TrEMBL record:
Lineage: Bacteria, Pseudomonadati, Pseudomonadota, Gammaproteobacteria, Pseudomonadales
Domain of life, source organism: Bacteria
SUPFAM superfamilies, A to Z: beta-lactamase/transpeptidase-like
GO molecular function, one term: hydrolase activity
PANTHER family in alphabetical order: BETA-LACTAMASE FAMILY PROTEIN (AFU_ORTHOLOGUE AFUA_5G07500), BETA-LACTAMASE-RELATED
The name this protein goes by in its record: Serine hydrolase
Pfam family, one: Beta-lactamase
Keyword terms: Hydrolase
Domain Beta-lactamase-related: 26-389
Length: 403
């Protein structure tokens, strides 16, 4: 008889390591894989596999530091909603109430930068539009429209030395992809949420995070800039190449993450360990609290993980872009997370109401409130869509549930 812990069969969970090794690590498709599976508030299975730095032959460990990129977004969203709980703003407040230069945002009609033809937005952008990616903003890497081409030209990616104030200023002059609330598009909106946190709290984003989320949860290995004394734990990041190989994309010794390099990105700027991110995810799974430290109210979190798309729509029916950190089918979107709405349509095992997000270099997490289950996975391969590891991981984890 296999050992069962918190209703999970350990022998079945061990298939995760075997699968990752035979399918991804040994064939050289992924550099490393670090996984945590927890249920009912308890870590049931965890393992670090592969190399955090292939060139230097440094093994991945449970305390390896990873670029979590867009897994920064849920942290930023929770931080902003902490201020909502203090009555600092309302979700239907127009963004221009706090960013006056955004009062008369225009919507793209035709043309190329800087000669855009625009029309006025049908209504002002609200803070909920930002949190739910219904703002009309975009990302330069989308490579889909003349608007996101302007983002690339202006280098609005956080690595060009722009300050957060500069970003907000540039965005005020660019047209939106669509009128706020009429569609969904993955975008710089969460970076704008980071700016709003600074405006509403009077603190720089990194200080606010430290005081209100990272220190209370004892997340001592999560930061925007890797400290010099922890560089030996910082993973290399790789780029997927044709033929299912990869090449070095960001050397940990010379990475821009080792020094201040532009604005503090609430949309993708954090570096963390799987243990630290597990603490954040477990606080959410517990309804907003961990080890006596409450970072968000239970009802606030329930509200955040509802589907906030119009009329309960799912992403395929309202999305304008082709990419985000979740498969679209069967998913809606809340305030900072994707939310599973239709399990059969998603074609991936799970429960209604499951929520989570991922990052550009393949990191991911999800929380299943029905099963009181959470999974965090870390690797460093861009783009995250190179392989279907996230969906395979779900099949392996749910296959180990026995009660």
């Amino acid at each position: 008889m296999s050992e069962v812990v918190a209703g999970l069969d350990l022998e079945r969970l061990s298939r995760i390591a075997e699968h990752l090794d035979t399918q991804y690590l040994s064939p050289g498709r992924l550099p490393c894989a670090v996984t945590v599976v927890a249920r009912r508030g308890q870590v049931v299975w965890q393992q670090a596999q592969g190399l955090a730095d292939v060139e230097r032959k440094v093994p991945a460990e449970m305390d390896t530091l990873f670029r979590i990129y867009s897994m920064t977004k849920p942290i930023t969203s929770v931080a902003l909603m902490q201020l909502y709980e203090q009555g600092r703003f309302l979700l239907d407040d127009p963004v221009h109430k706090y960013i006056p230069s955004w009062r008369n945002l225009q919507v793209y009609k035709s043309g190329v930068y800087p000669d855009f033809v625009t029309v006025p937005a049908q209504r002002p952008m609200t803070i909920r539009d930002l949190l739910s990616h219904q703002s009309g903003l975009s990302y330069g890497f989308s490579c889909r429209t003349n608007v996101d081409a302007a983002y690339r030209q202006l280098r609005l990616d956080g690595h060009s030395g722009l300050s957060l104030e500069d970003l907000i200023d540039e965005l005020s002059r660019l047209p939106l992809e669509f009128s706020p609330g009429t569609a969904w598009n993955y975008s710089l909106a969460t970076d704008v949420c980071g700016y709003l946190i600074q405006v509403l709290s009077g603190q720089p984003l990194d200080e606010y995070f430290a005081d209100h989320i990272l220190n209370p949860l004892n997340m001592s290995d999560t930061f925007f800039t890797v400290p010099g004394d922890r560089l030996d734990r910082f993973a290399a990041c790789y780029q997927h190449q044709p033929g299912d190989t990869f090449s070095l994309q960001d050397d940990p010794q010379t990475s821009h993450f080792t020094r201040p390099h532009g604005y503090l990105s609430g949309g993708g700027g954090l570096v963390s360990t799987i243990g630290d991110f597990y603490r954040f995810a477990q606080a959410l799974a517990n309804g907003g609290e961990l080890d006596g430290a409450r970072i968000i109210g239970r009802k606030t979190l329930e509200f955040m993980r509802m589907n906030h798309l119009p009329n309960g729509a799912d992403l395929p029916s309202v999305s304008t872009g082709g990419f985000s950190e979740t498969p679209y089918d069967g998913s809606g979107f809340g305030l900072g997370f994707a939310v599973k709405t239709d399990i059969a349509r998603s074609q991936t095992i799970g429960s209604p109401g499951e929520y989570g997000w991922g990052g550009m270099a393949g990191t991911t997490f999800f929380i299943d409130p029905v099963e009181d289950l959470l999974v965090v996975f870390m690797t460093q391969l861009i783009p995250s869509s190179a392989y279907a590891v996230r969906q395979e991981l779900r099949a392996l984890v749910y296959g180990a549930l026995v009660d």
